[in-house]
Write a structure and sequence with these properties.
Number of helices: 7
Order of helices and strands: HHEEEEHHEEEEEEEHEHEEEEH
Shape: elongated
Strand content: 25-35%
Strand order of the largest sheet: 4-3-2-1-5-6-7-8
Helix content: 25-40%
Structural class: alpha+beta
Length: 296
């Protein structure tokens, strides 16, 4: 009796194997989960990246040598470190098995051609590389994703919040930093670096703590955004709180600092736009204690 049950069970297993082999979709049955991925490309081949959202916003980033620029913003530098970190992540994604591949599933997970939260277009110099749709989030730090060339939908480790479809959000936050200043002039004080030591306009030693705060602020200054049209129009009529002319090993730049409605801005004569900065940076660069003029 036991031998008969064992034989019948073996036959059942064989039949199940045959059914699975016949009816399992070959496009996925022939691939192990680790072989499936969202996109396959060489990050060094990517010459353009376009990020769009479902509200017709779009940010276009272009590779220029070893750098990235934003054509919409007069070719200002983009945050290359952020872009260069993103591209390999798209390639490295081990997507596993798809959570769906039907048209209704694409709508439900918001990764269809007409319904998506983010659309990433990657292009080479003379050809398109891939278009990837990102949609709903199945959990922290993950989104559902689909390559436009495939119907399969995968959960991947990305975050839509980190992929804004607004050009100004991709600005290099370090573009105004002055790393090695050698002279700083304002209407209140003058400083120069001479034989490795900083001196005031009358040849005295500046206050050490205040000088360190000023130099650190210049080296770590970060842009957080751009003034919009209304802000720029209003600020154009205001006098600058501080005008600072800075000579460095890279050249000379003039900063004009203005504030309005508890927001803080700086205009640099190197660029045609008005940049927004944080309150802390603004204070460190404009609220200089007169003790800076001399330590006496």
């Amino acid at each position: 009796m036991n031998r008969e049950v064992t034989a019948l069970f073996a036959v059942l297993l064989i039949q199940c194997g045959i059914v699975a082999a016949v009816y399992l979709p070959t496009s996925y049955a022939e691939k192990a989960p680790e072989q499936l991925s969202i996109a396959s490309f060489d990050p060094d081949d990517v010459a353009s990246l376009t990020i769009g959202d479902g509200y017709d916003n779009e940010a276009v980033l272009i590779r220029s040598g070893a750098h990235w620029i934003i054509p919409e913003l007069h070719g200002l530098p983009a945050d290359a470190s952020k872009i260069n970190a993103l591209l390999p992540r798209l390639v490295r994604q081990s997507a596993g098995w798809p959570v769906g591949n039907s048209k209704p599933a694409q709508q439900r997970f918001q990764v269809s051609k007409t319904n998506y939260q983010r659309r990433l277009k990657l292009g080479a110099i003379s050809a398109d590389i891939a278009t990837i749709y990102l949609g709903t989030s199945p959990g922290f730090g993950k989104v559902h994703a689909r390559n436009a060339d495939d119907d399969a939908i995968f959960p991947v480790e990305l975050n839509n919040f980190d992929l804004p479809a607004v050009a100004s959000k991709w600005l290099d936050p370090r573009l105004l930093q002055v790393r090695v200043p050698i002279r700083i002039d304002t209407d209140l004080y003058h400083l120069r670096l001479e034989d490795g030591a900083w001196l005031t306009g009358n040849g005295r030693l500046p206050g050490e703590a205040t000088l360190l705060t000023l130099l650190t602020a210049l080296k770590t200054l970060e842009v957080v955004g751009l003034a919009d049209e209304d802000q720029a129009r209003h600020l154009a009529a205001l006098e600058a709180d501080t005008i600072m002319v800075i000579e460095s090993l890279a050249g000379t730049v003039t900063f004009e600092f203005k504030s309005w409605a508890e927001q803080y801005f700086v205009f640099s004569d190197e660029y045609p736009l008005l940049f927004q900065i944080g309150q802390q940076d603004y204070a460190r660069l404009t609220d200089i204690d007169l003790g800076l003029i001399t330590s006496e």
